[in-house]
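Reopening this ticket.

The earlier resolution said the output was attached, but the attachment link was broken on my side. Pasting everything inline this time so it's all in one place.
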Amino acid sequence: MTSSTVGSANGDARSAYLAGVGCYLLWGFLPLYFHTLSIMGVTSFEMIAHRTLWSVIWAGGLVLLARQGGQVAQVLRQPRTLGILLLSTLAIFGNWTIYVVAVNAGRVIEASLGYYINPLMNMAAGALLFRERMSTEGKVAIGLAAIGVTIQTIALGHLPLVSLGLALSFCIYAILKKQVKADAQTGLFIECAYLAIPGLLYVWHLQASGAGHFTQDARTAILLLAAGPATVVPLALFAWSARRLPLSAMGFLQFIAPTLQFLLGVFLGEAFTPLRALSFVFIWLGVAAFAYGAWKRTRTAPAAA
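Inline output:
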């Protein structure tokens, strides 16, 4: 292998890591975006409607850049694939709705808990539904997470429905996406297309009734238009980096987003009692066990090969 080839490989790996870090940083700071719109008087459902409306344009742009127009046309002739994508659309719409409403209700910390739990829930779903082998570290991680959720339930006085709803909806979304025989850009575009029509109708209704904020002032309009790239760009970065990085590396990086969200929740003054802190200690221990298991697999894989 020549030095130029090694340099090119290192450059690709570095770019992939930067893209991975970039997508999780964007997701981590996303609560600030919704919080800003909320201060300007935009309601949660108006935010979601604009998110669905402008995302389809950006997702369509990704399809054009990837030259996947033919694949989109092919998927449109496959009722089964369209049906699965409709179900995944409902799952991601539920995830978006829970997240935006939670952020604007001052429950960012609870939302961050959901994204800590999500990879552990994915691992459990893989074992139950796809008979994937679960390591000892994985079982320990899920057990610690269960203890953390139990303590969080005691601290809140009720089940952390926001956390569980976010984790479950995204887990269902991931399971459904495994069944779709189409590239990420194609699937995302069709999902956004499903949501764009009701999003457009709701935005039109708000504007016609005088309750919409799109024409309130230029700053608000720009921020609402930014819902498109705020949704699609991190997804594109994720898809690009996930194809080039080991799953274990993505496993480490994915905890950047909930950590930032957690810190933002504390910064915004959300209640963080000692009991809630204890629940996060168990969640973080579970995350550490998960990360250790991922690291160990990268060490044993070359030897097995």
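Reporter confirms the inline version is readable. Residues 3-7 have pLDDT under 50 and may be disordered. The radius of gyration is 20 Å.
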